[in-house]
Amino acid sequence: MNKNKIIIFSWTAVFLWLVLIFYLSSQPAVQSDGLSKKVTKVIIENVGKVVPLAGETSTTTDLVEHFNHLVRKYAHFTLYFVLGILVMNGFRQSGVIGWRGFLFSLVFCMLYAASDEVHQVFVPGRGAQITDVFIDSFGAFVGIWIYDKGRFFFMHSTS
To answer: Which UniProt keywords apply (predicted)?
Structure first.
């Protein structure tokens, strides 16, 4: 694949991921909460197959209520972790490397996280939370860091 196609493919992946984040943030609170509770329930049921749930922990419904907030925050982290990797790759493929690539990727992700929270102010039942911007930014930072260090590791391990 030639370099221009790789660049276009890399930034298309970023764009599609941004669209996914925007779509998820556009869901009204009731719909968003319902989706995260379904995910939380699947996690609890699968963990329950491996680690028996203690009798005093009540029902799956109680556990879903208890862990739903945590799952939502992990979802924020994970979405922006992937975004960080994709953006870092996009900049790298475009020739922006080293500390500039790292910094530009992080700033890009942080600005999108902040704009995403502002967007949620206009969605029924949703609101902006600065803690979500911090979680999103940290997820992006970890993704960017792993991409950067992983490339370094693989470049030197194949030599």
So the answer is: Membrane, Transmembrane, Transmembrane helix
Give mean pLDDT, residues 15-43.
95
Q: Which of 87, 93, 90 is nearest to 105 (CA)?
A: 87
Comparing 155 with 121, the larger pLDDT belongs to 121
pTM of the complete model: 0.88
Is the separation of the CB atoms in 60 and 41 below 8 Å?
Answer: yes
CB neighbourhood size of 124 (10 A): 9
Quote the CA–CA distance of 25 and 61 in Å, as a whole number: 25
Q: What is the chain's mean pLDDT, rounded?
A: 92
Query: What angle (nearest 5°) sits at the alpha carbon of residue 85, between those of residues 128 and 4?
Result: 120
Rounded Cα–Cα distance for residues 34 and 37 (Å): 5
What are the DSSP calls for 97-159, one per residue? -HHHHHHHHHHHHHHHHHHHHHHHHTSTT----HHHHHHHHHHHHHHHHHHHHHHHHHHHH--
Q: What mean pLDDT is predicted for residues 33-60?
A: 82
Is residue 36 a contact partner of residue 68, using CB atoms and an 8 Å limit?
Answer: yes
Where would I find the beta strands (DSSP E) of 23-113? none
Amino acid at 79: L
